[in-house]
Amino acid sequence: MSEKDDFDLQYFLPYMLNQAAEESSIAFQRHYKNRYGMLRTEWRVLFHLGRYGEMTAKEIGERARIHKTKVSRAVQKLADRRFLTRKKDENDRRSERLELTQAGLAAYRDLRGVAQEYDAKLVSNFDPEDVATLRRLLARLAG
Amino acid sequence: MSEKDDFDLQYFLPYMLNQAAEESSIAFQRHYKNRYGMLRTEWRVLFHLGRYGEMTAKEIGERARIHKTKVSRAVQKLADRRFLTRKKDENDRRSERLELTQAGLAAYRDLRGVAQEYDAKLVSNFDPEDVATLRRLLARLAG
DNA sequence: AGGTAATAGTTGATTTTGTAACTAACAACC
DNA sequence: GGTTGTTAGTTACAAAATCAACTATTACCT
User: What is the pLDDT of residues B88-101, one digit of tens each?
Assistant: First the structure.
């Protein structure tokens, strides 16, 4: 380059976020993938239902910002594997109330435990104050 | 839930990173997508060549941690669109030296400018010290 | 009430990614 | 110098994501 070029890709925030996100997902991914044959979206749906209780596909999509077709297919797979049940909302028969089965709840609890441990491990070498800053800024960046 | 459940998905680091990464990518994505018909991997390849100069597909893949098939396809598209040229490395005829054309360089410079502005805008409401912390931790999380 | 628009969710077609197997060139070793 | 093992990159096939069109139901509006 003949010109000044001090913009390094390694400091471009969207790029850094992506690299960190991918790296930090890999190890955890193995758990829901190998142990329960789940995809990321399926895990997220499971997690939402486990953590926040019964809700509709739409609500999950809004909370997690997942497109409705992705949610729809994830719900289908989870239902096929008997991790959740669907029943028509009698007040609005377009939508369905989704609820985890015992098996789904068990999977959720298992994965939640793994996630907690994994999260702790990820930040274990960092200064707790820095971690607080990290989470705060990430939350704001996520919008 | 009848049990104690204080693990919130919103504080699970891989999840937060993903949400922040996606959100922060959207606005910038439009530029390389609409203006140059590029995909994310193509933009990254372009960026590496523009920022660091001529190199091989393998080097790009290592630096950016992109799988070689993805790099291969991105290089193909960039070559089709005359953003880069490939010539066999005479010392090792398995690999190719990749180099941006004038058009590629122009696109790089354009997008680099947009990226710089965008990065600045993303952090403009944050305390600079917090931003420094953020980048430092992200770099470590990216491994 | 009747017609139009909006919404929840699904499905199908297209695009993109991921995985594995492949080719061509090089390296190492005897 | 030939066999075996690696490496750079491509290609083919399968899996998954995206986008648009669709069904069924509800809301709105006059």
Answer: 999 999 999 999 99
Closest CA to B100 of B42, B34, B58, B61: B42
DSSP string, A8-70: -GGG-HHHHHHHHHHHHHHHHHHIIIIIH---HHHHHHHHHHHHH-SB-HHHHHHHHT--HHH
Rg (CA), chain B: 19
- Which of B128, B137, B16, B69 is closest to A16 using CA atoms? B137
Report chain B residues whose CB lies below 8 A from the CB of A130: 133, 136-137
Distances (CA, A) of B124 to A53, A115, B13, B57, B120: 37, 32, 23, 35, 6
Q: Are B59 and B97 in contact (CB under 8 A)?
A: no
Does the predicted model carry a pTM greater than 0.90?
Answer: yes
In the stretch 67-86 of chain A, residues with CB closer than 8 A to chain B read none
Structure-block tokens of residue A48: 């939402």
pLDDT tier at A9, thresholds 50, 70, 90: confident
Strand C within 7 Å of which CB atoms in B 87-116?
A: 91-94
Q: Nearest chain B Cα to A100, which residue?
A: B1
DSSP string, B90-138: SS-TTSEEEEE-HHHHHHHHHHHHHHHHHHHHHHTTS-HHHHHHHHHHH
Query: Which pairing describes strands A96-100 and B96-100: parallel, antiparallel, or unpaired?
Result: unpaired
Q: Which residues of A touch B20 (CB under 8 A)?
A: 17, 21, 138, 141-142
**In Å, what is the separation between the CA of A133 and the C1' of D20?**
42
The answer to whether A130 touches B25, Cβ cutoff 8 Å, is no
- What is the 8-class DSSP label of residue B9? G
